[in-house]
Structure formats: C-alpha cells, structure tokens
Amino acid sequence: MNRREFLMSSAAFGAMMLAAPSVFAQDKLTILGSVPNLGFPFFVHMLNEIKAEAATQGVNLTESDGQNSATKQTADIEAALVQKVNAIVISPLDVNALAPAIEEAVKAGVPVVTIDRRVDNVEGILAHVGADNVKGGEAEAQAVVAAFPNGAKLFHLQGQPGAGPAIDRNKGVHNVLDPLKDKYQIVFEQTANFARAEALSVTEAGLAANGKPDAIICANDDMALGAMEACAARNFTDVKIYGFDALPEALVAVRDGKLAGTVEQFPGQQSRTAVQIAVAYAKDKTEPKEKLVLLTPIVIGKDNLDKAERLSETK
After folding, report:
1. Model pLDDT, residue 280
2. Does the reported pTM lie above 0.90?
3. Residues 215, 289: Cα–Cα separation, whole Å
4. Which of 15, 32, 181, 287 qualifies as a FRET site for 98, CA 20 to 30 Å off?
5. What is the pLDDT of residues 273-293, one digit of tens each?
C-alpha cells in the first residue's frame, strides 16, 4: 500500500469510527422518563414502573425529577433533546408551563407520551395515558353521599392549581355535590397543593374556623393523611376522610379504619402502557390504537382492598 492509499484508508476508517457511536446507539433506544417531583411517593412509584417497563422493553432510560419546578422539568426535556433521546414519557408538573418544551420536542420529531397529566394545547403529542380524574372525583364524592345519605357538612382540600389532575378531580367532586348542595354543604374549600404538611395546617385552620365536619374530601392521599393528623390532634376520629392515589400508607390507614377510603387510579398500569406506546413508535413508527387511554378510577374501602394496585407493599 502506497502513502496515498494509506492516508485514504486511514481517513475512511476514521470517518467510520466517528459514525460508529451513532450507528451503535440505534441498537438500543433511549427514552426520557420525567415526573414532577420525587418528593411525592406517588411519583416515586410512577418512575419505578417506567424504569421497570423500560428494562422489559430493552431500552435505556434517562430519569428526570422535576423537583416541583417547571423550570427544572423544562431544562430536563431540553437536555434530553440535545442528547437525542428517541422518545419522551412525561407527567408534566404544570400543563401550561411545560407546554412550550413539549411542543419543542414534538417539532423535533421526538414522540411524546404524557401520563397522569394531559397537555391539551400542544398538537402532535403521540398519546396520553392516564386516569379519568373527573370520574375519580365523582367516585370520591359519590362515596361520601353513600356514607351520609341524609346529608353532610364537608371540607374539600384541592390539589395544586394548574395541575391537570387537580383541575379534573375538583370538577368531578363538584359535578356530584353542586346539584345536592342543599344537603351536602362544602363549608371549607382550599388548596393544600397535594402536600401533607400543608394539608395539616390548612385543615387545622378549617377546623378552628368551622368546627368539625362530617367528612373531608382530599385530592390526594398525602393531603388526606395530613387532614387525618389534624383531626386526630382534636380527637375528631369519627370524621370520614377520603384520599386519592391508593398509596400503601393510605391503604394501611383504610385497613385500620383511620381513612374512610382512597381512590385507585392504577399509576403503574398508566406508566407501563405509556412506555409501551412510546417504544413501539420509536422502534418502527407503530401508531397507538388509541391516542387517549383513560383508566377508570375506583374507590378503595375496607371491603375491596384486594383491588388496590399496591396492596402488596403494605405492612
């Protein structure tokens, strides 16, 4: 081989080596799994299920904790796009604040599947998998009506403003109770931002101003557990408290009679289905059978604990 042939051969080999990582990278897809805040047990479970399904599907997972910051979650999406992930599975902290970053991903040709929280004002999202939170809120309110057929005085702790589930669950509760307001009076209604400590202080304020209610409807289990603590401190142990999410700690409280019920929305099934849809499209452009997959939540009480997705995690 003469010098010229050697140089040409070396250049070709070098070009091949530079190209190799991108070629080999296609052998194993990478997806971003992003949740709003790992400070909440619900999202820890959701991300764990995303991780488990990614392993089952044989793809790499880049994990993102939004840390309760739309700015942080947006930055994680932008970083993932720079890294050229093949798909994004995301539960957005705020459906409006995250819309620009999700739109950027869609425009870049990266398939996006949302879970739990739907972003309606961005076109081109591959699919949404979640619970029908309106129906979940309705089921929660209907459980209260069934428990108090003659009427009740109620507190209502709402979720984080701007979060899709909070909006929908609130709508569901009012769908049921507003037509019955002569018998079922919401005497105290305030957000506690899905947080246990905040729910404790908010409930304490509600009890001080309004006295003991018959029941407290909460938009998630963390708030229900905070409300439970506030009631216990005043020895109001007969107040029926309802949560939402069927966390293991809440299921234990239901079993022990400390919570009246919690709404199961099957977050593990949501997460796994979302990953399956995202990977199928990233691999060979397989379109989902349904763009909108909504699971129907159910109220878990003592009589149907076996229906809870995370019952095996209770102690």
Report:
1. 97
2. no
3. 41
4. 287
5. 999 999 999 999 999 999 999
